[in-house]
Amino acid sequence: MRAGANSRDAAAGRRTRVHVVSDVHGNTEALARAGDGADALICLGDLVLFLDYADHSRGIFPDLFGAENTGRLVALRTARRFDEARALGRTLWAGLDREAAITGAVRRQYAEMFAALPTPTYATYGNVDMPDLWSEYAAPGTTVLDGERVEIGGLVFGFAGGGLRTPMRTPYEIGDEEYAAKIEALGEVDVLCTHIPPEVPELVYDTVARRFERGSRALLDAIRRTRPRYSLFGHVHQPLARRMRIGATECVNVGHFAATGRPWVLEW
């Protein structure tokens, strides 16, 4: 990683290069290379791999219950049969300490992934992350931001992590009003960095899962009102549209990093 993405470099005319990733989902090997050649890495969350919809042998759930049961759970979720999916989960978890098993597995994943993050990294939470654990693993070179701003290379970046509540009940889902308050607190920024996209059909529909994920209306309103240069996000792994312009703002799904292993590049 190149040293020193700051306003003094920008004033001197040197270009700043930032790499952006989201939905890492356990791809530690690629994460260790994600900042190569950049002044900074931005991570938009979902470090944890609970289960892989494409490979039912990977993740916390199959480690505990096997690929066959993972396939059953994925099929039910994909069919939006959430009550049956939860019933299957209750049966499998019966007699086990669910919280202890998941927390222990997440800790092992975080230990590896946070150690792979380059300096500097600016990160926010995804909906499957466990924010309470991040402070234990984030090294001094990793700045965790949620409802906060930071300057990189002369531009102001605003970060808001997590997702909105869904039937999936992932670990860091919050109410619409709480999420809207975080977006409002950012004010006017050059680059809006969130885990979830704005509430636009083309940006929230997953073509493989065949469902609409939850995007944020408050984020969409903020984009229209404050007109940032960019809105960067992830969450939807196979979106109908990976980028589109809303007024003056370029909205970009930076990609499913777990599958591609490639960061999205922003340079100015």
What is the distance, rounded to the nearest whole angstrom, between the alpha carbons of the first and last residues? 16 Å
- The class by helix and strand makeup works out as alpha/beta
Mean pLDDT: 93
Content of β-strand: 15-25%
Largest sheet: 6 strands, mixed
Order of helices and strands: HEHEHHHEHEEEEEHEHEEHEEEHE
Tally of contiguous helical segments: 10
Helix percent band: 25-40%
Could you name the ranges where pLDDT drops below 50 across 5 or more consecutive residues? none
Radius of gyration: 18 Å
- Adjacency order of strands in the biggest sheet: 5-6-9-12-14-13
Shape: globular
Number of E-type strands: 15
Layout of SSEs?
Blueprint: H1 7-11, E1 17-21, H2 28-31, E2 40-43, H3 60-78, H4 82-93, H5 98-116, E3 121-123, H6 131-137, E4 142-144, E5 148-152, E6 155-160, E7 163-164, E8 173-174, H7 176-186, E9 191-194, H8 201-204, E10 205-206, E11 211-212, H9 217-226, E12 230-233, E13 243-246, E14 249-253, H10 257-260, E15 264-267
Parallel strand pairs: 1-2, 2-3, 3-4, 6-9, 7-8, 9-12, 12-14
Antiparallel strand pairs: 1-15, 5-6, 10-11, 13-14
Helix pairs in contact: 3-4, 7-9
